[in-house]
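Example record

The entry below shows one chain as it appears in the dataset: sequence first, then structure tokens.
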Amino acid sequence: MAPKIDSKPTETPLPTSHRSPSPSPSSSDPSSSHPFAFTATQLTTLFNPKSLETFLDLGGLPGLEHGLRTNLTTGLTTTESFLTGTITLTQARHHAISKTTSTSTSTQPLLSQPATPEHQNPIIPKDQFHSRLRVYGQNVLPEPPRKSFGRLLWDAYNDKIILLLTVAAVVSLSLGIYEAVSGQSRVDWIEGVAVCVAIGIVVTATAGNDWQKERQFRRLSRLKVDREVRVIRSGQQIMVHIHDLTVGDIVHLEPGDCAPADGVVVTNYGLRCDESLATGEADQIEKVSGVEAWERVAARREKADEGVLQEKRVQGLEEENLDPFIISGSKILEGLGTYLVLSVGPHSTHGRIMMSLGTESDPTPLQVKLSRLASWIGWFGLAAALLLFFVLLFRFLAQLPGNPAPSTVKGQIFMDILIVTVTVIVVAIPEGLPLAVTLALAFATGRMLKEHNLVRQLRACETMGNATVICSDKTGTLTQNKMTAVVGFFGVSESFGHLPTHTSPAACPVQVPQAVARFPTSFRNLLVKSIVANSTAFEERRENGTELVGNKTEIALLQLAQEHLDVPDLAAERCGVDVLQVYPFDSARKAMALVYRVRPDTYRVLVKGAAEVVLRACRTVVLADGCLEDDVPVGQLPDSDVDVIERSINTYASAALRTIGLAYRDLPAGVAGASKGGEKGLPRFEEIFTDMTWIGLFGIHDPLRPEVTEAIRQCHSAGVKVKMVTGDNINTALSIAAACGIKTDDGIAIEAPELRKLSDEELDAILPRLQVLARSSPSDKQLLVQHLKKLGEIVAVTGDGTNDGPALKSADVGFSMGLSGTEVAREASSIILLDDNFRSIVTAIAWGRCVNDAVAKFLQFQITVNITAVCLTVVTAIYNSSNESVFKAVQLLWLNLIMDTFAALALATDPPTPEILSRPPTPRHAPLFTTTMWKLMLGQSIYKLALCFTLYFAGDQIFGLDAHSNNDDRVLLDTIIFNTFVWMQIFNEFNCRRLDNRLNIFQGILKNAWFMVINVLMVGGQILIIFVGGEAFGVTRLSGAQWGYCLGFAVVCIPWAAVLKFVPDRDLLMLYVMCY
């Protein structure tokens, strides 16, 4: 429902600015058809730049709440669609005036408000928030304009060599047409047409590949922003897609979140943000609530109006640090809070930045390396082409005086020389090399997405194939992240549940209600608040019931409270807690805390965290004494009881259980501070985390993923070492590590505090054998990654928390968790594991190696064709007295199409084979060409050149032809050579599917549909060229016997490759060393 519009505002003066108000928010009210007090542009002025003056001019939080027709406590109404009536800016300001003396903003927005009966299952209208979306838009950035296929064609055509070849082809065509019209040669124009058509085919194929690549990467880009955020609507906490967020929503913030829109803080529990995305500064920005900013600025202005200059100066310095604004894209580093969304989509800060950026991505390292190689090969081709051009030119000029042919024929001869020369350059330049990498990456990232890997940075896909070490988290990655509280005790010995390994039939495990019954009623209340109130997990209502959402450990405890402590409504239980401050879980201190009011003069601190950490801070313990009803009986915690609890912790940990301890402490009001909003005056966590009272211990079971053991074995067979890095107890970590195969007899397990004490020399000695690092913090993970990289390792690391960002950035490949990870971790990572599963990391290794292999296969194929095609063209053109090469220009363009586009598609789309994880990783600085590749490339080039030169120089004797005096025989012999050469490339493409010395080149060939389709196209195209190409390609039809000779000569490439593989690689290395 729309808020009531005040018609008679009170006379309380609104704080006014000493300078003229910003024209945008105050110049004019929206039009009469506007259902809100502010336009999107007016709200944008709050953040560009941040302006407290504008914030006050708009009426502060009360004015924004009223003008946007929302509620700072219960959020938007889920049944809202069309809004009637209007609110003016003046009315919003008057509403703010009426609330200047009130501080009714809820101090408990982090706790779900109980829904009224009529809102238990509201009917969501199809046109939900229609008026808001019409005025303020969706939280979606418009996609940058996509290049049309025509633009891609132009980009592909706009190449200097292609343009030069086009000019030459057009001139040749013009001369040919002139000759045909003047009654001279009737067929010379055909070659010009054929060259133009071939250029069109090459350009179209290149543009088609670019279009497919761009389409694939756009799809991946959309998936990068596919996430949900936690909002309050109709008093209920729900998860909504980031695109469904709208102006007026109340959004929750917690460490690790990435703000989805611009807004103003409503409630603040120590929020600190990293706004480097917008400001470029990496400082932590401390936030205040909008109410506090309003009150402090108003107080400053009152002092200024009274002429208290010194106070004005002091307050002015404070105002500079007042920041109630949340900038979209900023990262929440500390604290909890809520904020009111004011700008979304292209109106938000992040949206404006993203729309101003280009969409072109940087080339990957492999693309850069291959582009450099292509440049070198291009220079080789250019040198060969220039040699050919000048030799043919000098011969042409020498023969010119004695040539009686007409000038048009002479011009045609010169153009033929130019066309062949330019075509040699086209063939020699391997533009397919970068294309092969792009295609391989596009294909691999698409397939990886189907296998739960979202690649955010393409370079990670390449690097992962060479990874030598994986530093993996335990929870959710190696385990299922399906946590259940199975055992525990209260006090020292009031136990319940049983260990997962417990098999004794005589034991009858004590259940939680029975254990709680041994304590007074007040203990149950304390236990419920420790579990339910001190938690960030919440209950979300869905169509098929309710579901707990949040941290899996907290969910396990909440389920225990619901099932065994008679807490059916978590929201109602939390609503009765007067929260003063929240200390979110921090991986460094391994605990979280909540401060709430017990009595007017007493506050209580509830702490939950790693059992041994909580135990170290305890001095007393709750007692099972049923006599006291109003308070929990406590007693001293002697060392003997500490030993008993520590032994229980170790027992639970050895059974692979996560151990969670609970404790509490009462504070007098003077210590807690008097700030109602919980923003100032409270001590730091470390100051109150002393002299605690021990409540109890929970053992939480998280079963191992069944597929992890096999995945670890595959890593070992692939030469990749796996190290577990976890914040859990070392006994828990060892139990899991041994079960999944990470921990071996010669491996080392150590706790992070001990690791920090080691010198660099000691780290160098220990890290190669380190397999388990327990009780680690994110800084320990970063230290481990950095030192492993110094040792020459290629490191992949997993992370899910906010503080894991530095480690994820430091690693060669950072994996974040798609299910349990924070948005900060996802932004810092290069690959997101959508299922949080370790097996998906192994999949990434396989596909990374597959990408590198695809490029190597294409290199092996392309270099062989380059060497042979250029050599044959240059040598035969120079040898021929009429300056004609064995390959015509259009034939060379067909070869270029086979080499670049077709071969790239065929060889870059091979999926990983099982053997790909049976070899060690490739070193970081390994050369592009292995010894085996050189052996096969040179061997195939020698055979192809020897065969083609034999056919060229001795073809007359072999086939009984007279190619020197009979032009038809010359064309027939050239056709046989051309046909044989093309078929040799087709058969050699099968050889290039293997990079090792194994003989089975057909393994997995049926799994690659692209390879089969491309080869069918090449075979069909070649057959059509021979049968119907005729004058266009300068060929003639072949007889069955001649086809047999061509195929027979060509198929020898396959057994010849097998012979080459029997030549030991070490012998070639020795020969290379002897030569150099």
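Notes for this example: Residues 987 and 1051 are 6 Å apart (CA to CA). The radius of gyration is 37 Å.
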